[in-house]
Amino acid sequence: MSLLNSASTKREAKSYLARLKAQQPTKPHKKPPSRPAEQNVAESLPSGVNLGSFYGASRSVYQSPVFRHDSTPTPAQDDIPERLHLALVKIKTPQLLDDYTLNGVARTLSQINRLGMACCVVVDPGSDGDTNTLRKIAAEQVSRIATAVDAQPDSKSSHLDSVLSFSAKNPHIPTVSSRKQLLGPLRDGHILIVGPIAYTEDVPKAVIVPANDTVIALTKELAGLTLTPDPDEDPMITARKIGDLQKEVSLDRVILLDPLGGIPAFRGPQTSHAFINMDQEFDNIERELLQVCDPVTRAQGANMVSDFIMESNPFSKFASSELASTPSKQAVMTVNVGESTIHGHLDNLRLSQQALAMLPSASSGIITSPVEVANSARSPEATQSELSVGTRRQRNPLIHNLLTDKPLLSSSLPLSRRARGSLHLPAPPTTFVKRGMPVSLIPDPRVQVWTAQTRPNMTLEDPTVDLPRLVHLIEDSFNRKLDVKDYLNRVNGRLAGLIIAGEYEGGAILTWELPPGVEDDGSEGSKARMVPYLDKFAVLKRSQGAGGVADIVFNAMVRTCFPNGVCWRSRKDNPVNKWYFERSLGTWKLADTNWTMFWTTPDLPDQPQMFRDYEAVCRSIQPSWADNTGVID
C-alpha cells in the first residue's frame, strides 16, 4: 500500500510539472554546453585579450558578503595605465644655436618619441644676465623649440610655465606642483618643454630657477621620491604608495645637450671619457677637473693630451696593417681648458651623478653637444650627397644609445681606434654615463703601486677575496671546470693583484711571471725580468656584452693597475680575440702553438729582451682546468 501511494504521489508531481511547463512560452531547445561558455569564448580569442567582467559574474555578486573562513576575494581593480618610459633632456643656451642645429635636435627628439620614449625638455638659458633677461630668454626659447618640434612629421609639442613651485617650508628647493599636469601631455605623445620658472605659494610670483635645480626636481618627482610620508600612516601603506608612483613612470635617460660636449680626460692616452662608471670614477674625474682649474696645473693639462698622443703609436705587424693612423695633434686637441669651460664640465658631471643616484641602476645618462646630435640627424639623402664614397654616415648618439644602451665607442678602445671618419671638423665628444658598479682593486694601487718590487704577500685564500665566488666567476665565464687546488698552487706567491667589478660580475687576476730559466731569488735582476701577466679575465655570462663590465675591468687594469703595460695570451680561434685586438697595442702569433700573445706595453718590439721574456712566459704557462686539455686559458 505504501508503494502504491508513493507511486501515485510521483505521478501527481510529474503531471503538475507538465501543466506548469505548458503554461510557459516555448523556447528553442539548446543543448547544454559541455564546458563553461566563457571558456569557449576565451579560447576563441587571441591570447592576451582582456574579457573584463562581461562573461563573468556581475559586480554585485563579487561585492556581496559571503561566509568564508579564508580571505575574501578582492574586487577586480581598474586597469593600471601603461608605464611611461621617459627621457629627461636639458638643452644648454639654445639661444646660441642656429635654426639648422635646433631643427636637427628637434628631429632627433621626434624620432626618440616615435620609438616609444617620451621626451621632457628643460630649457637652460644660462647665467649671463639678470633675472628678467633670463626669464625673457627662457620664454623665447621654449616657444622656439616648440615650433621646431611641431615642424617635424607626426610630432606635437606642449609647454608648461608653471609646473614648479616653492613652498613656504622649502623656499629654496623647487618641487613639481602638479604631477598630473606634468604627465598628461607626455601620455598623449607630446614632447613636453619646460622653462626653468617656479612660482611661490605664499605670494604668487614667478621666479627664475637654475636649470640644474629644475632637472633635479623633475627627476625626484618622476622617480617617485617626493611623497611626504604621514607619521601616523602604516609604513607598509606608504611604501605601497611610493611603489605605485614608481610603476607609473620609468625615467630611463637623463640627456644633457651642452655645446661643450662630453667630459674631457687629461690623464691617460684618451682625450675624453666615452663611458663613466660613476660608482668607480666620479671622485677621480671630479678631482682631475678641479686640478685643471688650478692656474698652475691648467697649463700642464693643455699639454697632457698631446704628450700621450705623440708618445704612443701602434707597432706590431697587426697594428700596422689594421689600426688607423694616430690622429694628428690638431685633430684631437678640441678641448678648451679655460676655467669657465672646466666649470661647465664639472656642472654636467655632478648633475648626471645626482640625477642617476635617484634612479634605478638600469637608467643611464648622455652628455653630448647639440651640434653632434643635429649633424647625425640629417636625412640620408643630404648625408650621401655630402660624404665621399666609402665614408659611413655618422651615428646619432641619442638614437644609438636608445637602441643599445651603450656608448658610441667602447671606453676601453685605444686612442688610435677612436679616429672619426667624417669630413666635418671634429665635434665635441659624447660621454655615456651609468651609476654603474663599484670596482675593488686588491691591493689598492693608491696605497701600494703594483710593481715587481712591491709584490704583495697575498694569496687567493686571503680574507679580502671571496674564493668560492671568484671560482664561480671563472668557471661561468670560461664554461669550464677549474682545478682549484692546482690553480692556487700556481698563482699563490706570484699575485700582482685582483680587479673585482660589482658583486663578482667581472674580474681579472694578474700575476708577476718569470721566464723559464730565471730564478726567483729576490734580486734586482730577477725583479727586472718579471713580466706583468693577465692570468684570468672573466665576466659572468649574464653580464657579457651588456653593462660595460668588460670595459670597466679592462680600463681599471690598463689605466690604474698597469699603466706601463701588461701582456696576456688567448687561443688563436677564441671568439673574443677581435675584442682583444682592438684594445691591445700589439699582437704576436706564437709559432708551433695555438696561442696568440697580446700586450699593451709601449714600444715592446723595440726592447728585444723584454719581448723575448713576454713570449717565453706566454709559451710556458700551464693551464689549470679540471679536464687538463690545455685548449684555453
Structure description:
By secondary structure, this protein is an alpha/beta fold. It is built from 22 helices and 19 strands. Strands 3-6-2-1-9-11-12-10 form an eight-stranded mixed β-sheet, sandwiched between helices. The protein has a four-stranded mixed β-sheet with strand order 5-4-7-8. The N and C termini lie far apart (100 Å).
SSE order and pairing:
Layout: H1 2-23, H2 37-44, H3 59-63, E1 84-92, H4 99-114, E2 118-124, H5 131-150, E3 157-160, E4 164-166, E5 175-176, H6 179-187, E6 191-194, E7 197-200, E8 206-208, H7 211-222, H8 235-248, E9 249-257, E10 275-277, H9 278-293, H10 295-311, H11 317-322, H12 329-332, H13 339-357, E11 364-368, H14 370-376, H15 380-386, H16 397-404, E12 431-434, E13 439-442, H17 467-478, H18 484-491, E14 495-501, E15 506-513, H19 524-528, E16 531-539, H20 549-561, E17 567-571, H21 577-583, E18 586-589, E19 595-599, H22 608-620
Parallel strand pairs: 1-2, 1-9, 2-6, 3-6, 4-7, 9-11, 10-12
Antiparallel strand pairs: 4-5, 7-8, 11-12, 13-14, 14-15, 15-16, 17-19, 18-19
Helix pairs in contact: 4-14, 7-13, 9-13
